[in-house]
Amino acid sequence: MSDNRLIHDETAGIERLLAIMQRLRDPQTGCPWDLEQDFSTIAPYTIEEAYEVADAIERRSWEELKGELGDLLFQSVFHAQMAEEAGYFNFQDVVTTMSNKMVARHPHVFGDETRDKSAVQQTRDWETIKAAERAAKAQSGTLDGVALGLPALLRALKLQKRAARVGFDWPSAQNVLAKIAEESAELVEARDALTQDDVEDELGDLLFVMANLARHLDVDPEAALRRTNAKFTRRFKAVEDKLAAIGKRPEDSDLDEMDAFWNEVKAEEKARA
């Protein structure tokens, strides 16, 4: 059983958190919910916590970020505890693996290589080192190692970056825009004449090319979409406020009225900019 003194010692740092996790998973005295979990049930929470970290950063809420980073750290501790119970590895192994990786990937900081090179060259060197790591894992294909569990838009971007490194890429954004027009036309055709599976397939193609356009424009598509989500949320809330001012809710209104208020909100934002 974990030492109660350590668990209640607020100065104990990571060792305290590890002891808390061990107690939560103790078969005799632990939490029933924590004991029921496994890697697959915890994984969605891990992803959710990573997004909440990104959300706190987006909102520049630094006090919340402290808590969200703690939540994300706890996810690593949870997975490591389950791995130790199964005999796979422990938290210290995680720390050692990460430390070794960072030292190996930064020879210009921790080794004999010079730091006198551009960020672009350092990025190329980083990719060369990662390619060697994949080769050591027998991941010989260009797209090997791109995690299946990534959000689809982010995975599309990573797949395209990998393909571009070996020359499988459009020369410019203009070529991508032409492809977007082509995929849009195919989507209309699918909508009018084909099955729902065909529509899904064509929409996926269009989204994939949109991610490629973002890459060519040096825009993070996830960040761009988060920004648009925030803008939509802000503007729709303003529309609701305008409706409330005349004693209405959205369900009491219609599209024409809400669209007129939407345009008012956009104009007001533009005037403030």
From TrEMBL:
Keyword Hydrolase: yes
Database matches in InterPro entries: MazG-like_dom, NTP-PPase_MazG-like_C, NTP-PPase_MazG-like_N, NTP_PyrPHydrolase_MazG
Cited SUPFAM superfamilies: all-alpha NTP pyrophosphatases (SSF101386)
Catalysed reactions, as listed in the record: ATP + H2O = AMP + diphosphate + H(+)
Record's keyword terms, sorted: Hydrolase
Source organism superkingdom: Bacteria
Keyword Hydrolase set for record: yes
GO molecular function: ATP diphosphatase activity
Enzyme class, spelled out: hydrolase
Domain NTP pyrophosphohydrolase MazG-like: 37-110, 174-238
GO BP terms: dATP catabolic process; dGTP catabolic process; dTTP catabolic process; dUTP catabolic process; response to stress; TTP catabolic process; UTP catabolic process
Gene3D superfamilies: MazG-like (1.10.287.1080)
EC number annotated for this UniProt entry: 3.6.1.8
Family to which the UniProt record says this protein belongs: Belongs to the nucleoside triphosphate pyrophosphohydrolase family.
Protein name: Nucleoside triphosphate pyrophosphohydrolase
Source organism of this protein record: Tritonibacter horizontis
